[in-house]
Amino acid sequence: KISQVKARQILDSRSNPTIEVDCTLENGIFVRTGVPSGASVGSKEAFELRDNDKKHFFGKGVKMAVNNVNSIIAPEIIGMDVTKQREIDELLISLDGTKDKSNLGANAILGVSLAVCRAASIYANLPLFSYIGGLGANLLPVPFMNIINGGVHANWQGADFQEYMIAPYGAKSFEESYEWGSEIYQSLKSLLKEKRYNVSVGDEGGFVPLVSSNEEPLDLISKAVENVGLSIGRDVGFAIDPASSEFYKDGKYILKNQNLELDSISMIDYYEKIVNDYPVVLLEDGLAEYDWDNWKILNDRLGRNIEIVGDDIFVTNLNIVKKGVLDNIANAVLIKLNQIGTLSETIDVVNFARQHNWGCFVSHRSGETTDSFIADFVVGLGLGHIKTGAPARGERVEKYNQLLRIEEFLSGKSVFAGKSILKKSNG
Ligand code: PGA
Ligand code: ZN
After folding, report:
1. Which one of 12, 149, 366, 396 would you pick to mutate in the ligand 1 pocket, going by the greatest count of ligand atoms within 8 A of its CB?
2. How far apart are CA 295 and CA 317, in angstroms?
3. Of ligand 1's atoms, which has the minimum distance to the CA of residue 284?
């Protein structure tokens, strides 16, 4: 039984306040969870409650959400059986009483939901991933590492596209994949220095070179991959998250970097060329969340060969994903727990997506804590791929490091997802 729930305000990786929740059980079990926060946020995401008190943290404080946990949620769930995750999540939803969790705050609710799960796993004497997914859970994901940052995560200094990720899918284990990723990251740093590019990093730990086109990062990374003796395409693929809602205005995609204004079809042509020229295996948010009808065209044209992932457009929301499946506008959904606000609702989205043969790509946020819940989550549910930034900065590597520990724990019994999760291998 839950005996204590206590939230506090801490800082995230961008120096913005966020919520941390402690949960204690009657038998003394103690756990803690941290809640992340996005910068390129979908308009239909569950509501992140902030104080808007300009005297503190420029209005970004979360003391109201903290207070909602401590004085509204805690008294209701103390005494409850910690293993009743769904019951507790449903109670949290009804205590809030709104559709978008704007009353108590999705940040307050998620912190509690995840703390309950973590505490229950210890009570059940299971590693978190096994508690989430059962004793058979053994699939280690391909890490999609974001090694060049652009867009809003780089203050619009470099590329227009927000994320250039490498997927070291040709490795035989997660450990080897992680090593390759780190070597490529270091090799890219050396290459950038050689070319007299800046090597400071963006919000997710990737470099921010002041490139002159949105393809140039792909050339730079290809070279960095070759420089460590790996083969681009065979060993390592690309994934791109342009986060295009951020540069979509009045029906046009504005690529400042190249002085281009493209309509939706020209934007799709642009991606098609990139996919033909480079071994891109996944494109996330290629079109804006307000461009629903053209997503279908994007998916028709590229979805047979690569994963077309919706982030801002689906916001891990079951009703929107259902409509997306019906309209056939993508073939995968990005999974961010804080977009919807409870573990149970997130699992519902995953189950629905899988029933319809859609991929589920698990994700961190650009503002993170050192909580590694999503690492256990991706293995527990066997979702095969995760993005959690560069193989650098504490809040990013903590998730990858946890995956390393899980692989070690499973010793010979783990399976590395590798190329099997991809639609196109380019091998
Ligand atoms: P965010 O970005 O966490 O800033 O929303 C991540 C993403 O767009 O995938
Ligand atoms: Zn995204």
Report:
1. 366
2. 17
3. 9
- Could you report the per-residue pLDDT of 230-272, keeping only the tens digit for each? 999 999 999 999 999 999 999 999 999 999 999 999 999 999 9
Q: What is the CA radius of gyration of the chain?
A: 21
- Check if 38 has its Cβ closer than 6 Å to any atom of ligand 1: yes
Measured from the Cα of 153, ligand 1's closest atom is 4
Give the neighbor-by-neighbor strand order of the sheet with 2-11: 2-11, 17-25, 30-34
Q: What is the pLDDT of residues 406-422, one digit of tens each?
A: 999 999 899 999 998 77
Q: Is 246 in the pocket of ligand 1 (CB under 6 A)?
A: no
The three-class DSSP label of residue 344 is helix
pLDDT at 97 over 70: yes
Confidence band for 402, pLDDT divided at 50, 70 and 90: very high
234: which 2 tokens? 């065979």
φ and ψ at residue 310, rounded to 5 degrees: -105, 125
- Ligand 1 binding pocket includes 366 (Cβ within 6 Å): yes
- Would you say the ipTM is above 0.90? yes
β-sheet with 260-262: strand ranges across: 248-249, 252-255, 260-262
Query: Scanning the structure block, which residue is given the tokens 């066997």?
Result: 382
Burial class, 396, CB count within 10 angstroms (exposed 0-12 / middle 13-18 / buried 19+):
buried
Largest CA distance in the chain: 62
User: Three-class SS of residue 216?
Assistant: helix
Residues recorded for the chain: 427
* Amino acid 194: pLDDT: 98
- Report helix angle 85-96 to 343-355, nearest 10: 110
Distance CA 160, CA 150 (A): 6
Q: Are 367 and 13 in contact (CB under 8 A)?
A: yes
Determine the pLDDT at residue 420.
Answer: 86
Cα angle vertex 116, ends 114, 120, to 5°?
120
